[in-house]
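Re: the 101-residue chain
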Amino acid sequence: MADYVLGISRRHWSYIEAISATLLIMNGTKAALNTVGSNGIFGYGKSTKLAKFGSKRNDTWKSLQALSLAVVAVTMLKGASESLKSAAINAQVSQIEELAF
């Protein structure tokens, strides 16, 4: 396989994917804490402290969420690129098999 995907080295892709996962976990955890704090779990465990988690820096959280979505989109683009390359190789192999056998 090539050392670069979409002009980015595989080593840097691993960093991008780790950042993507970290941002998703952070945003998901904040959303879960806010939901559990305001609604509780089956009505139990409501907490105003959890419901307001991160509300003082709401603009920062919105920026992190936007960054997370952008990084996820880039990693999905990488996956689509690799899938298309794999499909092209499979199509070539299939044509060779049809001609040879």
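The chain has a mean pLDDT of 89.
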